[in-house]
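pasting for ref
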Amino acid sequence: MRHLRRLFVVMSTLVVVADVPISRGETATGPSDTGSVHAVDFRASEPKEPVFAEITSRWNGAFLWAPASASRDTITRFGDEARAVFGPIPDGDCSSDKARILPLQVDGNLVDLKPNPHKEGHPLEFEHRDATGNIVKWTTGITQCDKPSLAGSAAYCGLNSRLHRVEQGNVDWLFLCRKSSRNGEVEPTPYWQRSNPKFALYGVIGFNRLTGETAFFDGRKDRREFDWTQKLVPPGGRSYDDDKGRAAAEALYDPTFQVECSACHDNKSAYVITPSIQQARVGFLDRSDPNAIAFSLGNLLPKTPRSRSTPFRVIGSGYTGTYRISLERASTVSDPTGNCTQCHTLTTQVTGQRFAADAVAKAPTIIRPTRSQFLRLKAEQRKLREINAHRTIWATRTGAGKIHPWMVPVEGNSLSTAVPEINTSDWSALSNCLWGAGGAECNYKPLYTPCPIPGASEQGDISEPVDFSIKVLPVPLANLQTDRVLRLGWKYLNSYGGVPQRDDVRFNVVVKSVEIPNTGAAPFDRDYPGRDEADDRNFAVIAGEVGTSGEAMFIRNVSFLGHSRFTEPKPSTELRAFQVDLPARCNRRYLVRVMPKRFCFDQTVLVYGRKDYVQHADISCPELKSP
């Protein structure tokens, strides 16, 4: 129990007369003073509901607003949601000096498309160089490569795509400008040259390494070509008031979410580390392999600690609405044979059903498939056969490279030792689990973790509102519709994920007015507005973000001072100040509940804080009493 000074006006002078108890979740003890304390519905008291709502909205309206509520456009809203979680989104810039070119390898050599100086007219041909830089040969076509793409929707042996990783504190932004073709093949045309900025597929991933929150943006699928000499504006533009950028983004990104990015990028991380992404730790004999040193991108995509309990959640109401069922059904899997999943997570999505099968060079299998599973299994087996048809013999165990399979039992991605491949029986048991056909031996658990409740430390959010205050102030002279101003205040910093501009938490405030008890006794916990009355589902609007809920007046979506409607929050690592001014009448007790809530920007919509933040003030006006 804490105490706050009660203030009131006598002869226009501010006078301190008494302490008013303020409760922050404590429950009073002892019998209630039923003879002198009872709730008075605002419908039967002054100021009337519309007057209260109009004054409250006028005084506070600039700071009463929900994040990402400025637009109904799918892409614009998606961008606003992402900024509220991840902070500012950088422009897509695959022409940056820090962007990396994804190399192509054939028979252990690096391949690029260049004019052949040894032929008349210098036709475009594929140059093959070994790890020491020597030209080995020229070819007129590429039909196979050592590390074909597993994506299924891109060229199998594409070359000269670009990857740009941008770090912003705890948030990674990954921009992929992928060259591809409709038939999945590569030809000696100018399009495939390193110097040609045209590309076919544009993808963006945002990922918070602390919270596991992930967002996926994809370029439009009805657009055949993009150009990386132009910086690509993020969804929602760069801010709420970036009208030009917001319009450009609406024309750039796919509002239908045609590609289910989360089906592949589901390994408790935003990164899909397969050999085709050319990281030194995967798809080479080991890190000392001369090819790894000469050709790989090193650790451009860093290895992140992962476990089955690691938080992982997809952001974006439009995207999650499109793939709601898939996201709900996705599970992590424990390998019942003990061969795999000790270093990383496998899932019942593409990570398990395609990538794992390719990693061990085995066809996926289900022991007793249903008809639906059988059809899906056959389709996946066909896709893997297409991928294998584009893989060189050199890369296989029977060839000189011996980099496929690229995962082996116990040793994982270290291929330098003669470790045997996973046996057929063990693979059958694991594959059965990966296709969701297993039982308790698979130890299935939900892949995606829930939207974190504000202040729930077990979910990683330790942010809580503090320094609550309640003051009774003189009313502005121009306002004759109320006797006093009841000013609520508190401080809070949304520190979840360590993003200084994070903006996905707001506060609801519910207020009840009752007669002041004759004894002046402190209110009991049950006297305050209930938690259900602070729930948005019970909000009945009167004016803007002010309305009613049960017997209480309801002020929702309170943001911090200075954060006006549809503006970007300034970065801060210090507590932010919150304030709500309410019209109040003399000789009334005001009971207040403040409840934090998080906008999840997924199909959960909202989650509310569990702790109670309640306070009260008695407004006595002795200057109005009879002498």
